[in-house]
Amino acid sequence: MSTQTALLKVMSDAARKAARGLNRDFGELTELQVSKKGAADFVSAADLKAEQTIFEMLQKARPGYGFLGEERGLIEGTDKTHTWIVDPLDGTTNFLHAIPHFAINIALQREGAIVAAVTYNPVTNELFWAEKGKGCFVNDKRLRVAARQHLNESVLATGIPFLGHGQHATFLKELHQISQRVAGVRRFGAAALDLAFVAAGRFDGYWERDLKPWDLAAGLLLVSEAGGKVTSAEGDEDVLGSGSICASNLELHPLILQRLRAAA
Ligand code: IPD
Ligand code: CA
Ligand code: CA
Fold first, then answer.
1. Final residue of a structural domain among 94, 122, 142
2. Residues near 141 by beta carbon (within 8 Å), at least 6 away in sequence
């Protein structure tokens, strides 16, 4: 039931190998106290190293595939139908601040559709994975989105715009529409894990704007394979193109969208 295919194994191995480096660097950051001044450079070096590891492993396993990574941009392959979409370190600000909540994100796009996904949390050793039509898992456990049907019992995740990034006024209007109707709103700081947590039924829903394909590609398959619904924050199917997301179960999804529309 939870046996990974050769494709998923390639992706999981790449994530685990990159994670070993990230874990070492995270340990150094928290224990050896990289000087405040050097911390940002240290983290971007860790980030680049992780992407290099993932790139090499994926490249070796599937030589013709294209590669879209946060750090190196798009590298076209000879096989125009397949592209890896990779965020080697999602939750950089957490990492930099020694907050143990970050992930490695690897997705495979085939002819425009995401067909395989891995989101790995190296700190908790939780590997979230899914393949189109085959369900969603964390390690060897099958996942389902939460069953809650009412906003007043739901905990939603979001992303708060920050210095130089995002639409601050829009976010405040959306938060105002949502926060007064739900049991809680969380901002954990790693979009990849926000989506994995929706797939796992930990969060009942999640919305955020101004994201990139590598933040979203893996998670959108995790959520849909866990039985959830994923659209842009406007309700469109083109999540990667829009850079915004609304992910939840089938009952709550329209209710969240309704609130986002009321904020517009
Ligand atoms: C960020 C995280 C964060 C989200 C930001 C992203 P990064 O990715 O996913 O949760 O709010 O917009 O850029 O920079 O840590 O890879
Ligand atoms: Ca990211
Ligand atoms: Ca990143």
1. 142
2. 2
CA distance 74 to 80: 12
For residue 217, give the nearest of 200, 201, 182, 241 by alpha carbon. Answer: 241
Expressed in angstroms and rounded, the spacing between residue 23 Cα and the centre of ligand 3 is 15
Q: Render pLDDT for 206-222 as a digit per residue (tens, 0 to 9).
A: 999 999 999 999 999 99
Crossing angle, helix 191-199 and helix 213-225, to 10 degrees? 0
Q: What is the pLDDT of residue 33?
A: 64
- Domain residues for the domain of 226 are 151-263
Phi, psi values for residue 190, rounded to 5°? -145, 105
Structure token pair of residue 51: 């992407």
What is the position in ligand 1's atom list of the atom closest to the CA of 92?
15
Tell me, yes or no, whether 228 lies in a domain: yes
pLDDT tens digits along 95-136: 999 999 999 999 999 999 999 999 999 999 999 999 999 999
Mutation test of ligand 1: which of 47, 92, 163, 209 has the most ligand atoms closer than 8 Å to its C-beta?
Answer: 92
103 alpha carbon – ligand 2 mean position (Å): 9
How many domains are contained in the chain? Answer: 2
Measured from the CA of 215, which atom of ligand 1 is nearest? 9
If you measure from the C-alpha of residue 197 to the centroid of ligand 3, how many angstroms do you get, rounded to a whole number?
18
Give the ligand at the shortest distance from the Cα of 47. 3
**Tokens found for residue 162:** 């920050």
CB under 6 Å to ligand 1: residues? 87, 90-92, 159, 189-191, 211, 215
Ligand 1: residue of 90, 106, 185 to mutate (most ligand atoms within 8 A of CB) is: 90
- pLDDT of 42 higher than 90: no
